[in-house]
Design brief:
Blueprint (H helix, E strand, L loop, with lengths): L25 H11 L4 E4 L6 H14 L3 E6 L10 H16 L1 H5 L3 H9 L4 H16 L4 E6 L12 H12 L10 E7 L3 H4 L12 E2 L11 H7 L6 H12 L3 H14 L8 H10 L2 H4 L5 H9 L2 H17 L2 E2 L4 H9 L2 E4 L2 E4 L2 H6 L2 H10 L4 H9 L11 H11 L6 H33 L4 H18 L12 H11 L5 H20 L1 H5 L18 H13 L6 H14 L7 H20 L3 H17 L1 H4 L9 H17 L3 H24 L3 H16 L11 H4 L3 H14 L6 H16 L36 H13 L8 E5 L4 E4 L8 E5 L3 E6 L6 E4 L5 E4 L3 E3 L4
Parallel strand pairs: 1-4, 1-5, 2-3, 3-4
Antiparallel strand pairs: 6-8, 7-8, 9-12, 9-15, 10-11, 12-13, 13-14
Helix pairs in contact: 1-2, 3-5, 3-6, 9-10, 10-11, 11-12, 14-16, 15-16, 15-18, 20-21, 22-23, 22-24, 23-24, 24-26, 26-27, 26-28, 27-28, 28-29, 29-31, 31-32, 32-33, 32-35
Length: 868
């Protein structure tokens, strides 16, 4: 009898096409009919809901009618360290195997793929394979099933183009009837918004969503057959099973199988007894094949996300149901399988989940997450501004210990750093108060003894300090040292000795370097810096110790400790610019020390904190009288952070700092141009262009026009600044205008002087005149290589002298890209018909446009007014 067959029910894998326990649901017919009609479909749901079994059964029905079905399981293509070429090659291989192209048509797909890969990118190769191979060799309707589609989320490259191709194939049906025979079906554990970032390319807004619900009472007749002969009332047994499982397919099949096995015993358990004994009690060890642990891991695997999901689930469990707001957290909780949406209400999926994932389980999971989750959540909600939610004391210490071996998010690091900074500030405030009381007592000491020490110290300082430089701020320490002695005549003897000790060591260091300085007279003198004038006595000692820490590597830890000690003793306000700058120097020094110790974690933390403070104070940093933190230091710090972020693969943070560095260059360029400092402006412009291209100056002839066209918006911005502040004399526009004149004169046989040529690739250009004495570096000789570089920069992008005209975007949505390349990053999308300004003559197939702050649009998407 059927009931004696222990294999009647199947758990833990896809049901075969002839499985007797397969339950046909409403989704089966909808999925089949839509695919049969050639409609793109997607089945996105939690794990173990029967998606793969649905695919197998639907394929069987379609193939019986003559449709060719191809199954692609993305699990088999690979998850880590797979290149985009390997990924698309794996897709093609799966299609060749499923459709038996090698056996039936003697098709060597590897040779075909290799030949096309040599000239085309993988996306285009895949598109050609579909159109020129698959649809040509197979004349029947074709349905391509892509299972485990959520695997695309783990790839290191964007697969938006894959979804864009599916949409493209659907849209091609209008012009190419051959595509009417091609249909796609996607299955996996994800939401449409998870799978594709570019919403303008998504196929999900033109497809059919197949909703997959649990087994309903009127659908389960196939399951009852397996219980017949083992139970007097199999209908009642299946109803009790559904009461526990809620129709969840995996649990329902499993519980039916367990009941059949139980029926062979002398004293079989009831459904309720069996559920508790075989599923709920000791569930983690009994969960085989894995199901409940999959739900737990989906919810708790990410510390940053888990607390939100757990609290949302707790609300649903307490109230019985909760209105769905379609948020990210709601979607993620549904994909875990723990809750289900019915009539826009979220409910716990079934009684088994309700009893296993109970209040005690929720509480234990929250304890295992970040110990500061509640404070953190409220701090984030305040926009990271409410200090009352920051940690202090033992709470902060516990959090730091917990975080030591964790891979924290940037926001977590920011929260802990802000907590640490706040604690330091409060300690400083307390120490300042204590120091103020102490100073009141010590101010009564003998004035005669203090004045005697002051006179001796001044005499000794004038004898020992020499002109010279150890590092960027040493040149100002002589003035600083004398200023300390001149101003602090009220300081007590023992405290003044603390000041004199680092100052004396610094003087000795300057004296040691005198020989080297005298033997390097031909070197360029250091750039002038503002005299360092610091009003606070403790900050001066801190700065002296930082100078020594940068010079005496063998004592660096001691000097940094002293610097930190006196920073904490300072009585000056926390937001004073001199204190902030010295603290930033201290953080940078600590970061360098961490690097020496090969402690990347601390190095990154110190550098990130220094970077954050500079960004907060960038409007004040270089506009005050006190200039301790030199601009070269800021530039060097940003570059080091970029390299570190790349090394630890934190690409979002890398891009953020790169943007800050570019903003810094632009700010400096505008400041120098305002001051009419043309050589310095030329130098900064050079830095900008080298920064864009990623090349050394002597390698600029290697840069392609195609690459330059990625940076047209930046080059136009540089051009605009030079036009504005030099009365249009030394910009790219003026160079381009002069270059046309230069070429015209050459074409008429005129001989141009060698010096009559613009700068290498950046303004300013002295067009048609001798270089001025105050700007000698512009006297450059022309050469074929030099002219090649010049013409590249001037012809790659439009500038002010290039005429623009209006064009109509007539068939939106139309993408505007950073580079004139369909596979390159989209800057924005024009979603309605509108007039945009375009420049015609810079690329064969693309227009440059001022829309979206500058970018490239394909010519076929624009109609010019002059052509209408």
């Amino acid at each position: 009898m059927v009931a004696n067959n222990s294999d009647f029910y199947q758990i833990g894998a896809s049901l075969s096409s002839n499985a007797q326990s397969y339950v046909q649901r409403l989704a089966d017919e909808k999925f089949y009919q839509n695919l049969r009609a050639g409609k793109f479909c997607y089945v996105l749901n939690s794990r173990q809901m029967g998606k793969s079994s649905l695919r197998v059964r639907t394929m069987q029905r379609l193939e019986a009618e003559g449709t060719v079905c191809a199954a692609i399981d993305l699990t088999g293509i690979g998850k880590h360290k797979v290149t985009i070429s390997q990924w698309y090659g794996g897709i093609v291989y799966a299609l060749v195997e499923s459709c038996q192209l090698e056996e039936k048509f003697d098709f060597d797909w590897q040779l075909w793929w290799q030949e096309h890969q040599n000239i085309l990118d993988p996306v285009k190769c895949f598109s050609l394979f579909i159109e020129q191979v698959l649809l040509q060799k197979i004349q029947q309707p074709i349905v391509i099933f892509v299972d485990e589609i959520d695997r695309v989320l783990s790839q290191d490259f964007s697969l938006d183009d894959f979804f864009a191709l599916i949409r493209f194939f659907q849209n091609q049906r209008v012009d190419k009837p051959i595509f009417e025979r091609l249909t796609f079906a996607l299955l996996g554990v994800a939401t449409p918004s998870d799978l594709i970032t570019d919403k303008t390319q998504t196929p999900f807004n033109i497809g059919e969503e197949i909703e997959l619900y649990g087994f309903q009472l009127d659908e389960i007749q196939p399951l009852i057959k397996g219980l017949q002969g083992r139970f007097d009332n199999p209908q009642r047994v299946i109803e009790e099973i559904l009461d526990w499982t809620g129709g969840q397919p995996f649990l329902t099949q499993k519980l039916c199988k367990l009941m059949v096995e139980e029926s062979f015993k002398d004293n079989p358990c009831t459904v309720t007894e069996l559920v508790r004994a075989k599923i709920i009690d000791n569930w983690e060890s009994l969960d085989n094949p894995e199901h409940l642990r999959t739900i737990r891991n989906r919810i708790c695997s990410n510390d940053q996300r888990a607390s939100y999901l757990l609290e949302l689930y707790h609300q649903i469990r307490q109230s019985g149901e909760l209105a769905s707001n379609n948020s990210t957290e709601v979607s993620e909780l549904q994909l875990s399988g723990l809750v289900v949406k019915r009539q826009d209400k979220l409910k716990v999926y079934n009684q088994i989940y309700y009893e296993i994932f109970d209040s005690s389980w929720i509480e234990n999971q929250l304890k295992n997450l970040r110990p500061y989750s509640e404070n953190f959540r409220f701090w984030v909600a305040s926009g990271s501004t409410e200090d009352s939610w920051l940690l202090r004391g033992k709470a902060l210490q516990s959090a730091e210990e917990w975080a030591r071996d964790k891979n924290l998010s940037y926001q977590d690091k920011q929260y802990l750093a802000a907590s640490k900074e706040k604690e330091i500030q409060e300690k400083i405030a307390a120490q300042e108060k204590e120091a103020a009381l102490e100073r009141e007592t010590k101010d009564r000491e003998s004035a005669e003894a203090r004045n005697f020490l002051l006179a001796q110290a001044n005499k000794k300082a004038q004898q020992r300090i020499r002109n010279g430089s150890i590092f960027l701020i040493i040149t100002s320490f002589m003035t600083l040292f004398l200023g300390i002695l001149a101003v602090d005549f009220k300081k007590q003897i023992d405290t003044s000795q603390e000041l004199l000790q680092p100052a004396g060591e610094l003087s000795n260091l300057l004296k040691k370097n005198e020989f080297n300085q005298n033997n390097n007279r031909n070197e360029s003198p250091p750039k002038e810096k503002n005299t360092i004038k610091i009003s606070d006595y403790h900050l001066k000692i801190a700065l002296l110790n930082l100078a020594l820490a940068s010079s005496y590597l063998e004592k660096v830890e001691a000097y940094l400790e002293k610097a930190n000690e006196y920073l904490n003793k300072s009585k000056i306000e926390n937001d004073s610019i001199e204190r902030i700058q010295i603290y930033i120097l201290y953080l940078i020094a600590e970061g360098k020390l961490s690097n020496e110790r090969q402690d990347k974690g601390n190095q990154i933390n110190y550098y990130q904190k220094a970077y954050g403070m500079i960004q907060q104070q960038k409007k004040r940093m270089f506009s005050e009288n006190v200039n301790i933190l030199f601009k070269e230091t800021v530039e060097s710090l940003y570059k080091e952070i970029i390299l570190l972020a790349k090394e630890i693969d934190d690409l979002d943070y890398k891009r953020k700092v790169e943007t800050s560095l570019k903003e810094y260059y632009y700010t400096e360029l505008e400041n120098q141009l305002k001051s009419n400092a043309l050589p310095q402006s030329d130098e900064i412009t050079t830095k900008l262009v080298l920064y864009f291209t990623g090349l050394e100056k002597d390698k600029l002839d290697e840069v392609s026009i195609n690459k330059l066209q990625s940076y047209c918006s930046d080059l136009k911005k540089i051009d605009k600044l030079w036009n504005k502040y030099t009365e249009k004399r030394y910009s790219f526009s003026s160079q381009k205008e002069w270059a046309k004149s230069y070429q015209l004169k050459l074409s008429k046989g005129n001989i141009m002087p060698k010096w009559d040529i613009f700068s290498i690739f950046v303004p300013p250009a002295i067009a048609g005149s001798q270089p001025r004495p105050e700007y000698p570096n512009l006297g450059l000789e022309s050469s074929p290589a030099l002219e090649s570089i010049q013409l590249k920069f001037l012809s790659a992008c439009p500038f002010e002298i290039d005429l623009a005209e209006d064009g109509l975007v007539f068939d939106p949505p139309s993408n505007i890209r950073i580079r004139p390349d369909i596979n390159y990053e989209i800057k924005c999308s024009i979603k309605s018909q509108e007039i945009i300004r375009i420049y015609k003559n810079f690329n064969a197939t693309w227009y440059y446009t001022d829309a979206c702050n500058g970018g490239w649009i394909n010519k076929i998407q624009v109609r010019l007014k002059t052509d209408q």
